[in-house]
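User: quick one, sequence for these tokens?
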């Protein structure tokens, strides 16, 4: 049976068929997002096995997330033009092949290159899966619940990644954290061929190579400066900063004049969408900085095995599993404000509590501190996803979702880069030096949490809703 005859997007789809599509899309985002956090637990073993430097470890994560952040919007546009199912399947294939190459990498340079290839496939999954979900669930209440489930998968994958990674590294070695993706991807490809329908935007947007180049240049310059600042000359640092500033100016000037830009700047007139992008950046910057520092703390400072370190993070995964469901229901029933306020408050308090962390803090107390991060991560993803697409026409949902996902990946990239730049020099100086240096990271978490609270108050009122309606009205008939 042809997929298009089994299921068509919209009201004609049966509930069972829609849930199958949601399941396939959730599986895709789980492997993409989990490959951000699952690698963290493997970093100490990668460093010893491949002789990697601290910056090499940062690039193992940031080479992946940087590509995701830079090219998600392009992938969303490609899917609107060539078909979401087709691009989704191509993304799964490239991601699976990239995962296989990561597991076979003979050196850190090869591993980073394979991670970049893996990320190319990942860019075709996250925003495209979101667009598939939005176009499959047409009833507003049912769509809100589906988006809540889909959004919660990001937090769940991030939280469970270290636990699964610890088990795999301890039992099968660090390469297994990449090999595990291959059978999952194969199963997803088979299921997508059978059940996911093809869909396109009513009118495909033109490609924007100049805009894409400017976005990639901006992100690359910023991340490279943060990671490599210790070994760069001041002249090169200033050159890269100038290139980043000029890229940003170029994006604003060029994209605002283009008829069909890569970054549709008019969407940013929607306060909920613009706030969702910044909140996504804040949230993932905070969590990835926490995860990067915590993994090194548990294994290099406390001397725990990868499995034991992963088990210490298990309470976070449990809370995310529970609270993501609660958060999704709260969003569907009352809107995004309540869960976002809880998330921001938990991150701020968590950052403050972690300032008391020492090399000798009792492990039960350490795990108790981590619970606050679990509350934050469990509550934050569904409302951010819902806020991003709130009020947007369905044909723009892919772009809006891609912008929010780009915010997440940019935050992830910056979180690792900043945390690594702060604690990297202290790795070889002992536990006290490490935990003292990490205070700067915990202060950052506190500030990001307060920023989330402020942005929530700004983006969830009646005035913000009116800006979303006016922004959507700029795209009549699309």
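Assistant:
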């Amino acid at each position: 049976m042809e997929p298009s005859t089994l299921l068509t997007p919209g009201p004609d789809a049966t509930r069972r068929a829609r849930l199958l599509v949601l399941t396939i899309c959730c599986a895709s985002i789980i492997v993409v997002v989990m490959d951000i956090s699952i690698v963290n637990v493997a970093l100490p073993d990668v460093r010893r096995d491949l002789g990697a430097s601290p910056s090499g470890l940062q690039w193992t994560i940031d080479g992946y997330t940087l590509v995701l952040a830079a090219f998600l919007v392009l992938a969303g546009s490609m899917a609107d033009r060539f078909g979401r199912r087709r691009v989704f399947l191509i993304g799964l294939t490239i991601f699976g092949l990239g995962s296989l190459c990561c597991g076979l990498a003979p050196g850190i340079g090869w591993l980073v290159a394979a991670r970049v290839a893996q990320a190319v496939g990942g860019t075709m999954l996250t925003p495209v899966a979101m667009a598939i979900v939005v176009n499959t669930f047409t009833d507003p209440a049912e769509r809100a619940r589906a988006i809540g489930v889909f959004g919660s998968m990001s937090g769940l994958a991030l939280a469970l990644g270290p636990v699964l990674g610890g088990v795999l590294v301890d039992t099968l070695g660090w390469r297994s954290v990449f090999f595990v993706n291959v059978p999952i991807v194969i199963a997803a490809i088979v299921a997508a061929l059978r059940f996911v329908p093809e869909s396109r935007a009513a009118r495909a947007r033109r490609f924007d190579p100049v805009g894409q180049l400017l976005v990639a240049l901006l992100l690359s310059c910023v991340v490279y400066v943060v990671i490599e600042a210790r070994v760069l000359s001041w002249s090169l640092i200033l050159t890269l900063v100038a290139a980043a500033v000029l890229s940003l100016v170029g994006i604003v000037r060029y994209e605002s004049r283009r008829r069909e830009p890569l970054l549709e700047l008019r969407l940013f007139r929607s306060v909920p969408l613009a706030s969702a992008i910044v909140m996504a950046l804040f949230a993932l910057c905070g969590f990835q900085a926490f995860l990067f520092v915590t993994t090194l703390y548990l294994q290099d400072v406390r001397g725990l095995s990868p499995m034991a370190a992963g088990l210490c993070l298990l309470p976070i995964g449990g809370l995310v599993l529970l609270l993501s469901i609660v958060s999704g229901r709260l969003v569907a029933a009352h809107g995004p404000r309540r869960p976002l306020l809880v998330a921001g408050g938990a991150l701020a308090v968590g950052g403050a509590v972690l300032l008391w962390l020492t090399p000798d803090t009792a492990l039960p107390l350490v795990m108790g501190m981590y619970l606050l991060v679990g509350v934050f991560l469990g509550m934050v993803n569904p409302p951010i996803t819902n806020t991003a697409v709130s009020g947007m026409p369905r044909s723009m949902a892919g772009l809006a979702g891609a912008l929010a996902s780009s915010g997440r990946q940019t935050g992830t990239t910056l979180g690792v880069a900043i945390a690594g730049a702060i604690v990297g020099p202290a790795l070889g100086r002992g536990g006290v030096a490490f935990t003292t240096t990490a205070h700067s990271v915990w202060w950052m978490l506190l500030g990001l949490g307060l920023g989330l609270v402020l942005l929530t108050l700004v983006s969830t009122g009646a005035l913000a809703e009116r800006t979303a309606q006016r922004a959507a009205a700029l795209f009549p008939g699309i």
